[in-house]
Write a structure and sequence with these properties.
The radius of gyration is 21 Å and the shape is globular. It has helices at 11-22, 51-64, 74-90, 97-116, 146-149, 154-158, 169-179, 200-208, and strands spanning 2-6, 26-33, 68-72, 121-123, 128-131, 134-137, 160-161, 213-217, 223-227, 254-259, 264-268, 275-285, 295-300, 307-317, 320-331, 339-344, 351-361. Strand 10 and strand 11 form a beta hairpin. The strands form four sheets. The chain has a six-stranded antiparallel barrel. The chain is an alpha/beta fold. The N and C termini lie far apart (48 Å). The protein has three domains: 2-125 and 163-179, Rossmann fold; 210-272, SH3 type barrels (Roll); 274-361, Translation factors (Elongation Factor Tu (Ef-tu), domain 3, Beta Barrel). This is tRNA-specific 2-thiouridylase MnmA.
């Protein structure tokens, strides 16, 4: 097959491209320029899309003997990922930009261009597996990225290849070393790629501005503190609440509610965070077929953690197909804007069957 390998400049995508070459595919490497003003160097494990990353990707492509290009997707990335991220936080939500990037950039804009140019598939260094067209967790549970890939539909998955998903990360680095790839020991990227400082609150504040509001005790209604904007908070947050005095019961307080219209941030106990049902819209069923009724599954509500046994039922919402998820056990820290990803365990490993964007919980 003729395949396009997305090469970020990291070890995973370099090994993925190398494995595609070794498998006999005709491989072309491409690096996505996602920043309108890329820095020259990365800051350790923070950030991406620097000129250093592009150079690392080019060197890997040269070693593999494959053509290499840099494609400018900066404007599309700003519009579909960064602007959406900022708007979601301003609306009191907690988005995951990796989901948006996979959905709208890598497996939409990039994949569409690849198909238009005659490529049969898109190769990436994501830690996930495809078996008989079904998306499954990676062998390396600590690196598994099936959660952020669950937004992909059946057609997108049919054109995807994840060559490293069957291998633990330490062995990927060993393989890169054996292949002579200079990125073998390059640090993994962490946090949000377009916020290299790691200070999400400052990044959002510079774009949203000051929108004062109150931090209120959910039990008493008392105002405990003032704040500069709901974008500085997320459900389940414990630190940085601005509350000076401890609670009367001596227990920690957590963010339990965010009202972007009034600017009110409500806090309560850990028990107040527990939910037993979740509503989601923008449903995607990875098989391409909507289940005819309720499905027993495991739901995951954060990229790392937040799992529970559940029953998921397809429903109609004002925004189109949705999912009603009833939990067999309570979950904490469920926030609007996050993804609820549904898995079904089987002998071949946890299979992703669908996902939706969380709009509410009870």
């Amino acid at each position: 097959m003729r395949v396009l390998a997305a090469m970020s400049g990291g070890v995973d995508s370099a090994v993925a491209a190398a494995r595609a070459v070794e498998a006999g595919h005709e491989v072309v490497g491409v690096h996505l320029a996602l920043s309108t003003a890329p820095g020259a160097l990365r800051t350790g494990s923070r950030g991406c899309c620097s000129r250093e990353d592009a150079d690392d990707a080019r060197r890997a492509a040269d070693l593999l003997g494959i053509p290499f290009y840099v494609w400018d997707f900066a404007d599309r990335f700003k519009e579909d990922v960064i602007d959406e991220f900022v708007a979601a936080y301003a609306a009191g939500e907690t988005p995951n930009p990796c989901l948006s990037c996979n959905e709208k950039i890598k497996f939409s804009a990039l994949a569409e261009r690849a198909v238009a140019l005659g490529f049969d598939a898109l190769v990436t260094g994501h830690y996930a597996r495809l078996a008989d067209g079904e998306l499954r967790r990676a062998v390396d549970a600590d690196k598994d990225q099936s959660y952020v890939l669950a937004v992909l539909d059946h057609q997108q998955l049919s054109r995807a290849m994840f060559p490293v998903g069957d291998t633990p990360k330490p062995r990927i680095r060993e393989e890169a070393e054996r292949r002579g790839l200079a990125v073998a020991n390059k640090p993994d990227s962490h946090d949000i790629c377009f916020i290299p400082t790691g200070d999400t609150r400052a990044f959002l504040g510079a774009r949203i501005g000051v929108r004062p509001g109150a931090v209120v005790d959910g039990a008493t209604g008392d105002t405990l503190a003032e704040h500069d904007g709901v974008h500085g908070f997320t459900i389940g947050q414990r630190k940085g609440l601005g509350i000076e005095a401890p609670a009367a019961d001596g227990h920690p307080r957590y963010v339990t509610g965010i009202d972007p219209d009034s600017g009110t941030v409500t806090v309560g106990t850990a028990a107040d965070l527990e939910v037993t049902s979740i509503s989601a819209n923008r449903a995607v069923w990875t098989s391409g077929r909507t289940p005819e009724g309720p499905v027993e599954c495991i739901v995951q509500v954060r990229a790392h953690g937040g799992l529970a046994q559940a029953v998921a039922t397809p429903v109609d919402t004002p925004d189109g197909p949705g999912i009603q998820i009833d939990l067999r056990e309570p979950l904490r820290g469920v926030a609007r804007g996050q993804a609820a990803v549904l898995y079904v365990p089987d002998a071949a490993g946890d299979q992703v069957i669908g996902c939706g964007r969380i709009t509410g919980s009870e």
